[in-house]
Design brief:
The chain is mainly alpha-helical. About 75% of the residues lie in helices and about 0% in strands.
Length: about 190
């Protein structure tokens, strides 16, 4: 009798694959990378499930530094250890750094032009839309969250009100609502 083979999830094949993948992610992510990262890592490459993405993204958000850089370090480290983390980090930073320096030089030449400020405002609106669309796409994962969908929605609305309407500093919101959510989740999981 043959032993059934276990289907393994796709994963990066080499350090070069990690570097190139994260370089391409970084080049797509001007103004906000959440939508791009989720689509590439979960839907296209399938290196992560939706649940893993949300968990890792939450950890990446509470760590100091850019969220997507933190996520790249975690994914690279998961598959190839320290070398993988460094390859993913280099992919996130090397080519985008050169492009940003080039764009800064160009912006310095044309900053006074009204079309430039209009283009930047338009890019901000697009980035906000991409983030909202990703949030809606990942909304279904809340069904399996230990806190349950109603409480998650309530915490999300409280966070939105505190940031967008009351303009409280993010560190206070993170410490306050984050602590409440962690305590509630711990209690639910302990049962």
């Amino acid at each position: 009798m043959k032993t059934p083979t276990v289907q393994t999830r796709p994963q990066p094949q080499s350090l070069t694959d990690l570097f190139v993948s994260f370089t391409l992610l970084a080049l797509q992510g001007f103004g906000g990378v959440l939508a791009v990262v989720q689509r590439e890592l979960v839907e296209k490459k399938q290196w992560m499930t939706k649940e893993e993405f949300i968990e890792d993204w939450a950890v990446a958000q509470i760590m100091p530094g850019p969220n997507v850089v933190n996520l790249s370090l975690m994914i690279g480290g998961r598959y190839f250890g320290l070398q993988g983390a460094m390859a993913a980090l280099a992919g996130m930073l090397a080519v985008p750094l050169v492009l940003v320096l080039l764009l800064a030089w160009i912006y310095a030449q044309y900053a006074g032009h009204p079309g430039v400020s209009g283009a930047l405002r338009g890019m901000g609106a697009v980035a906000a839309g991409l983030i909202a669309a990703t949030g809606l796409r990942l909304f279904s994962v809340l069904k399996t969250n230990p806190l349950g969908m109603p409480l998650c929605i309530a915490l999300g609305l409280l966070c939105f009100a505190a940031v967008a309407l009351l303009r409280w500093p993010l560190v206070y919101i993170l410490l306050g609502l984050g602590a409440v959510a962690c305590i509630l989740a711990y209690r639910k999981l302990k049962r």
